[in-house]
Amino acid sequence: MNAQAEIQHELKAKYPTSAQINRAMSAAKKGGMKIGGIEVKPDGSILVLSPKSHLTDPAKEKFFED
User: Fold this and answer.
1) What average pLDDT is seen over the chain?
2) Which end of the chain has the lower number of beta carbons within 10 A, N or C?
3) Who has greater pLDDT, 1 or 50?
4) What is the number of structural domains in the chain?
5) Which among 41, 64, 37 is positioned nearest to 53, based on CA atoms?
6) In a domain, 19, yes or no
């Protein structure tokens, strides 16, 4: 592999598969977590978010209050 090809290979996103995402969601549910969302990063990381974890803006929190 030449230098250009090596750089392209290293920069290529390594998104997780749908099976990996489903396993992460199942594990969270099994642990009693309510799922509010999923964040998938290019490095393959999967973050399972609680329903209020994405509400950091006070204006949004007021909007979603019951």
Assistant:
1) 77
2) C
3) 50
4) 1
5) 37
6) yes
